[in-house]
Amino acid sequence: MSDKNIQRIRIRTIDRVHMTADILKVFSTHQVNIIWMEVYTHVVYIKFERVTGVLWDEIGNEILAIDGVQGLEDVDLIAFEQREQLIETILKFSSDGFIVINKDKIIELANPTALKILNEEGFLEGQSLAKVLPPFDLVDKAIESGMNFTNHPLLFEHKGKICHCLVSSSTIANETGAVQGVILTLRDMQDVREMVHSITQSRQITFNDIITQNADMLAVVKLARNVARNKSTVLIYGDSGTGKELFARAIHSQGIHRNNPFVPLNCAAIPDTLIESELFGYEDGTFTGGKKGGKQGLFELAHGGTLFLDEVGELSPHVQAKLLRVLQEGCIRRVGGQKEIPVDVRIVTATHRDLESMVKTGQFREDLFYRLHVIPLRIPSLREHKDDIPLLARHFMSILGPQLGKSELILDAGALDKLMVYAWPGNIRELSNVIERAICLCEGNVITEGLIFTGKSSSEVISEAPPVVSLPEAVAATERTLIANAIANHRSIRQAAKTLGVTHTLLLNRMKKLHIDNVV
How confident is the model at residue 200, as a pLDDT? Predict the structure, then answer.
């Protein structure tokens, strides 16, 4: 029956016995067919075949004449239709997918978001759940015992698409508590990542955070701004402490991936035995003591965003080959897994090494080099833009001073001269450390030449009379010096380990125990 032939009314009443019967009698007397009726304490909704003219006037007057009837009005929808429309709207526009199944695991309802997550078109109603989701016993437990579950991860292939989502359940029970069905809520994993990222992300680094007035540095910043807007891979060259990660973060924040994660990894700081699983993740049961259910790698965590690989020249040939495959095919395979997982990630890499020379000596894959070397950026060392030192020094004073309980600090001429003549092998990071140390030692608000300790002159702050130390302390100090010198001379943790006659992993463990920062 067309809706134009349907009429709906709402009758306001007092609460009395036989009120509904009296109203029904009016419709029965005039032989009007009632389609639907809802009765509440003070309201009665009636949906019926449309009545017009004199007949409707008679029916309306007779209803209003009933004892206790307080009003009558036409409505567009009766109560259950309003609820149904509201639920339909919620299901249609919800960012979560909903699948309602009966106790036989037959789909009764699936909203548009569920269809999108599952790469389905049309209707799923009437199909078995097994046709769209891989079997997992939590659904059976929910039906059998009413035991709900929350955020169970599912990763599977369906109709040519990798589906990665979190699934939760809410059981549907009758008056006796017997389960009649289950509502499954599906959340796309990428949406979950974006939500977590939006809540937890700190303030993004932008190009405005790069402090410079030097023409060469400004040219690098301009080039970086231009390439930030596309998805091409960027390879940043620069010595330790020049700000390679700062540039990488700024490129991310101005690019199309800025609302998604920025995931950094120092390739030199992870042992060869672990870096593959760190980048690509692993499946359940791959490693003894591994995380139950497996673990996502950094490529999956960075999906939709940017993965920054610092010291990319330290990757082993095996990992180089796997990285090349990701760049070529746009998908990864977890360690111990068989499934291809698509990833949409912008790759930004950095190194202090001469990768072209490494290609010639066979230390770095030529095909990977050209994949990474699409947009090369070279960041000058601080000794190449010393005109930025006054600007940078005062910037660090303004940031670090309040953090250390000192404000309105002044850098006198002698201190500035000392900063200007130093070679700065540690670049901007070293300058920041020198300024922080000067602020800590400053008793007033003027930083003088005597508070600036650079390079070997830092020994001036130590008493000339060597303190008496225990043998273990002396051994640790000697070991610390040997390791620091090896790293400084080779500028590669792997090369330093080879010179010291130890494994890369052992050297990393000793550095951690002796609190030696990775300055490479």
Answer: 56
- Using CA atoms, how far residue 172 sits from 133, 140, 147, 392, in Å, is 20, 14, 11, 64
Distances in Å between the Cα of 351 and the Cα atoms of 316, 319, 424 are 14, 16, 19
329 and 213 both lie in a single domain: yes
Question: Two tokens at 380?
Answer: 């000058």
**SS3 state at 381:** coil
CATH of the domain at 346: 3.40.50.300
pLDDT in tens, 467-494: 555 677 677 777 877 887 777 677 678 8
In this predicted structure, what is the pLDDT of residue 82?
A: 87
Domain shared by 365 and 220, yes or no = yes
Helix, strand, or coil (residue 341) = strand
Q: Which residues are within 8 A (CB) of 399 and not within 5 positions of it... i.e. 6 or more apart?
A: none
Element of type H or E holding 345: none
Q: Are residues 354 and 395 in the same domain?
A: no
Q: Which two tokens stand for residue 16?
A: 């009395």
Q: Are residues 307 and 355 in the same domain?
A: yes
Task: Identify the residue with better confidence: 458 or 406.
Answer: 406
Kindly report the pTM of this predicted structure: 0.57
Domain membership flag for residue 464: no
Among candidate residues 466, 380, 389, 474, the one with its CA nearest the CA of residue 432 = 389
DSSP 127: S
Tell me whether strands 69-74 and 6-13 are parallel, antiparallel or unpaired.
Answer: antiparallel
Q: Is the pLDDT of residue 510 over 70?
A: yes
Tokens of 470: 């225990």
d(CA 186, CA 154): 10
Query: For residue 466, is pLDDT > 60?
Result: no
Domain count, the chain: 5
